[in-house]
Amino acid sequence: MIQKEALMELALQARQNAYTPYSNYRVGAAVLTGDGRLFTGCNIENASYGATICAERTAIFKAVSEGAERIAAIAIAGGLADSEPSDYAFPCGICRQVMKEFGSDELTIYVVRSLTDYQEFTLAELLPHGFGGDSIK
Ligand code: THU
């Protein structure tokens, strides 16, 4: 598996591209796919607020649209303005649900303040008893 530091560094870099004129809350994400590829994403806001997309879904949808079928790990870095992340940016519920669609319970989620200050979770920890495709078979 790619070094988690590399994934976290990509998330911090992707955060620089966040388009956030309304919240000024900037998020970057980096995804490692099951077939070993890397994709990044940032949050992209819209004057019609509901059209905003989170960084995590940007990265996951980029991966899936390029043929990836599974997500193995994701790193997330978020915080206000141009400063370094001041807190851990946990994924919103919708993004956790999208992770469920393309990842296993063991999908690794890194919430990153810096390369030396991060927390690591599995999807099962952040989305226990989740609803997935198996639920409707
Ligand atoms: N945001 C993300 O990018 N990821 C999350 O998991 C939570 C929220 C973004 C959406 C919006 O642009 C800003 O953070 C404030 O909600």
Your description of this structure?
- Helices cover 26% and strands 27% of the residues.
- It is an alpha+beta fold and 137 residues long.
- Strands 2-1-3-4-5 form a 5-stranded mixed β-sheet.
- β4 (108-114) and β5 form a beta hairpin.
- It is globular, with a radius of gyration of 14 Å.
- The model has no long low-confidence stretch (mean pLDDT 96).
- The structure holds tetrahydrodeoxyuridine.
- Tetrahydrodeoxyuridine is lined by residues 20, 23, 25, 27, 43, 45, 52, 54-56, 91-92, 95.
Produce a short descriptive summary.
Helix content is 26%, strand content 27%. The chain contains four helices and five strands, in the order αββαβαββα.
Largest sheet: 5 strands, mixed
Low-confidence stretches: none
Radius of gyration: 14 Å
What's the number of extended β-strand segments?
Answer: 5
Proportion of beta-strand residues: 25-35%
- Share of helix, binned: 25-40%
User: What series of H and E elements makes up the topology?
Assistant: HEEHEHEEH
Bound molecule kinds, no repeats = tetrahydrodeoxyuridine
State the distance separating the first and last CA atoms.
Answer: 32 Å
Q: Which secondary-structure class do the elements indicate?
A: alpha+beta
Instruction: Give the averaged pLDDT, no decimals.
Output: 96
